[in-house]
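FYI - complex with adenosine-5'-diphosphate, inputs then prediction.
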Amino acid sequence: MITGKLFILSAPSGTGKTTLLRKVMADVPGLAFSVSHTTRSPRSGEVDGVDYYFVSRGQFETMREQGAFLEWAEVHGNFYGTSGPAVFAQVSSGIDVVLDIDVQGAAILRASAKIPATISAASIFIAPPSLQELERRLRGRGTDNEETILLRLRNAGREMQEALAYDYLVVNDTLEQAIDTVRAIVIAERSRGHRLPTGEAIKIVSEP
Ligand code: ADP
Ligand code: 5GP
């Protein structure tokens, strides 16, 4: 059985990472989304257990104390964390797992020895074409109040400074082009691991 790999994606809030990821995951077989735990309230249309596990601060702190998180961070005033056992169960069954985490979480995973050497990871930073366009998208999404939008915009500049620490940088200007690029990265990374675009192992056939 081949081991799956981790795809770590980060972007300033409002860049379009969720939109982009949904399209790529619908298109590329063998990718699973790591459902994080968060203390943020659900947005309209978000489903518990699909988009996030929505938990109270108390529940989050208990899980954190129990060491349930591979990484966790406070982002824009809420806690977010990735479940280690859930991720490792999928990767060890050969499935590639997508982690949608912020720059702090990505830095923790880069610096810590929490990911075994047998599991490879590729990180992708998704950038907006400009801060003005980022503001337009945050406002256009219509899910956040003014205070939240301003906080997310303030944090975007700091987050952008982390872009060069990632293996890949993709600008989400035209959505279709960004989708194609992320899809190409996943397929290229699979080829590096001697796997087909579908994620299965390549069978090498030799001439008789
Ligand atoms: P994120 O997950 O990065 O916070 P979303 O996926 O929620 O961002 O996207 C924020 C808003 O921007 C949404 O209204 C989405 O439809 C829009 N959007 C995403 N990508 C693009 C794009 N390439 N061009 C224009 N609007 C976009
Ligand atoms: P949102 O509230 O817009 O869904 O997400 C806000 C930020 O939290 C995004 O940058 C997203 O990538 C990040 N995030 C989501 N889940 C996790 C997680 O498990 N860990 C970390 N560190 N960040 C996360």
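The first strand starts at residue 6 and ends at 10. The mean pLDDT is 95.
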